[in-house]
Amino acid sequence: MQRIGVDAVSVDRIALAVKRSGPGFLNKVYTPAEQAYCAGNDERLAGRWAAKEAVIKCFDGTGICFPRRRIEILPGPNGAPRTRLLGNDRGAQVEVSITHHSRLAVATAHLEIPDAGTTMLPAPDAVLIPARPRDAHKGTFGTAVVLAGSLGLTGAAYLCSTAAARTGAGLVRLLVADTIYPILAAKCTEVMATPVPEVAPGAVGHAAYDSILRQLATGSVGIIGPGLGRDSSTWRLVLDLALHAKCPLVIDADGLNALAVSPRAKGKLGKNRVLTPHPGELATAARARTRTRFRRSRAAAPAMCCRGSSGG
């Protein structure tokens, strides 16, 4: 990634700031080495102000922020200004040029920084997608069937189904209520949005049980819960699917809330169910104190992944 920044400042403006605020202004903007080099010279101070501003403009939109005092600009061996970023520069290289004319300091900055994709650490072996045969096609890598979303919670359906596609599923079919189908059909490109009957606007209910069970039967894995809402008919649907679907299921979010309130779910989910609660959902399911809730919940489900602030 390359960026260019330009800035100009009146020398008189910097001189006035020094006169009014003295050391307070200087210490906020300039490093001790810069202050020693400038020795109170208004033009040198103005040139460095303009150069720092140009550098800051280069970083705009990169997610990297350097305040003026962490950008040090001093002359190099040949007299040209050299820039040093004080802190984690993430591999950034900056060059500046300073000029003066008619009590005006003008500076340009050129930033070159590695693209984020080239600086990321390699993924651990456990999360690498296996090598794929050259003659493979979308049907080779299984079908994920996702039941998610409700009125006002379409983002959850979009995010979880897109994540399934990006992590290697060959086909992803997203089952959503009739009312929100147009939203997801327009938003999803890799994912196949499919409408199913609803019991209220945007809420999938138990009336869709048979059709959803048939869809899950065609899948390699099912994902149930994100953004499904809290309609009682929806929760009854989730419970029956969790108990009777033949394919492996990942149950999350509102799917977990539905299971937590039903005594029918306890100890009956089978070994091919994966529950992914955050700490609040885990506490609801286990009805235990923070220190013991994970241990107690593990006994009630064959597989559980707790996502939260410390583990993601």
Describe the structure.
35% of the residues lie in helices and 23% in strands. Helix 10 (254-260) links the parallel strand 12 (249-251) and strand 13 (273-275). The protein has two domains: 2-116, 4'-phosphopantetheinyl transferase domain (Ribosomal Protein L22, Chain A, Alpha-Beta Complex), CATH 3.90.470.20; 136-304, UDP-N-acetylmuramoyl-L-alanine:D-glutamate ligase, CATH 3.40.1190. It contains twelve helices and 14 strands. By secondary structure, it is of the alpha/beta class. The two termini are 29 Å apart. The strands form four sheets. It has a seven-stranded parallel sheet with strand order 8-7-6-11-12-13-14, with helices on both faces. A three-stranded antiparallel sheet has the order 1-5-4. The chain has helices spanning 11-21, 23-29, 32-38, 42-59, 116-119, 154-166, 181-187, 209-217, 232-244, 254-260, 279-286, 293-298; strands at residues 2-10, 71-75, 81-85, 93-101, 104-112, 143-147, 171-177, 192-196, 198-200, 203-204, 221-224, 249-251, 273-275, 303-304.
Furnish the topology, listing elements before pairings.
Blueprint: E1 2-10, H1 11-21, H2 23-29, H3 32-38, H4 42-59, E2 71-75, E3 81-85, E4 93-101, E5 104-112, H5 116-119, E6 143-147, H6 154-166, E7 171-177, H7 181-187, E8 192-196, E9 198-200, E10 203-204, H8 209-217, E11 221-224, H9 232-244, E12 249-251, H10 254-260, E13 273-275, H11 279-286, H12 293-298, E14 303-304
Parallel strand pairs: 6-7, 6-11, 7-8, 11-12, 12-13, 13-14
Antiparallel strand pairs: 1-5, 2-3, 4-5, 9-10
